[in-house]
Amino acid sequence: MNTLKKIAAATPLLLAAGAALAQGPKQLELIAFGGGGNWPVWASQEKGFFAKNGIAVKLSFTPNSVEQIRNLMSGKYDLGTTAYDNVVAYQEGQGETELAAQPDLFAFMGGYSGSLRFVTQPDIKTYAALKGKTVGVDAATTGFAFILYKLAALNGLAASDYKVEKLGGTPARVQALMEGKIAGTMISSPSELLPESKGYTRLGDTTATFGPYQASIGVARRSWAAKNGDQLVAFIRSYVSAMDWLHEPANKDEAIAIYVKHVPNASRPAAQKAYEVMFAANEGFQKKAKIDLEGCRTVLKLRSEFAKPQKDLTDTAKYIDESYYRKAIR
């Protein structure tokens, strides 16, 4: 009888354990911008790095940074990849939109550095030719808009010399550019390859002008990370493994095949060019997904110059917590 009672008592626990196994690894919701910047995520999925670390990741694309930050703060998504500038902007009350609650966003790893191009219509070969025309941005007060404003200013244009239209993420801006709706826009690599292959002009380049620039980072809410630290560490560990794998020359052909699989209408030659751009020595995907503090300082300098309300921002660490990253790579 005692044995039967023990079996009966244990049955619900066994059923629960079986159900948990059947459900598989915990799924994390990741929100990102479309484009080749998601290469490490695709590699993590294809090569089983996420599964090896006990997680699954569902990747969703955001139309723009406003929706991305809103949905992160609402808890619809667990984590994301976005511009380091976006984290700073919303934490400093300089974001493109008001949020329902005080944000607690932080950068937990790097993504890519530089790799931002100012591309214009084929007939626009100088900044002077932009006078009276419209340029496209994701948001007017965050992201990479300040790079565009600074490039224009350095080349003799006042803010009143051109118009700014908010169009959302890189894919939407590239489409608007190629449809002739805007004169130019900042483009995240490797998305500049298509318009440039068709004769569009690269008028400006972030790395050439500013040196180190921390473009993309991993972002999460501090409150979420405090409760889900093991999952965040698992995500970072998987992402770094994918970055290591992608940087290995012996894996180039398979990496290119992954890109072609996930990027609509990408040819193999285009994917090969994208690989060359994103795994260049001084920009592109960052080895070990390590944040570049010098690149972060460049972001803060631009934000200090152009953001409203005006603030003198110098403390890069205020927006970063690398404790999860350190656990992931040790």
Continuous helix count: 15
Structure class:
alpha/beta
Order of helices and strands: HEHHEHEHEEEHEHEHEHEHHHHEHH
CATH topology of the largest domain: D-Maltodextrin-Binding Protein, domain 2
Walk across the major sheet and give the strand order.
2-1-3-10-4-11
Strand content is 15-25%
Number of strands: 11
User: CATH superfamily membership of the largest domain, which one?
Assistant: Periplasmic binding protein-like II
Distance between the termini: 51 Å
Please state the overall shape, judged from the principal axes of the Cα atoms: globular
Q: State the major sheet.
A: 6 strands, mixed
Portion in helices = 40-55%
Describe what you observe in this structure.
- It contains 15 helices and 11 strands.
- A 6-stranded mixed beta sheet has the order 2-1-3-10-4-11, with helices on both faces. The chain has a 5-stranded mixed beta sheet with strand order 7-6-8-5-9, sandwiched between helices.
- It has 2 domains: 26-113 and 213-291 and 308-329, D-Maltodextrin-Binding Protein, domain 2, CATH 3.40.190; 116-210, D-Maltodextrin-Binding Protein, domain 2 (3-Layer(aba) Sandwich).
- Mean pLDDT is 93; it is low at 10-22.
- It is α/β, with parallel strands linked by helices.
- The protein has helices at 2-23, 39-46, 49-52, 65-74, 84-91, 145-154, 170-178, 193-197, 206-210, 222-227, 229-247, 252-262, 268-278, 293-306, 323-329; strands spanning 26-32, 55-61, 79-83, 105-113, 116-120, 134-137, 163-166, 184-188, 201-205, 214-221, 284-285.
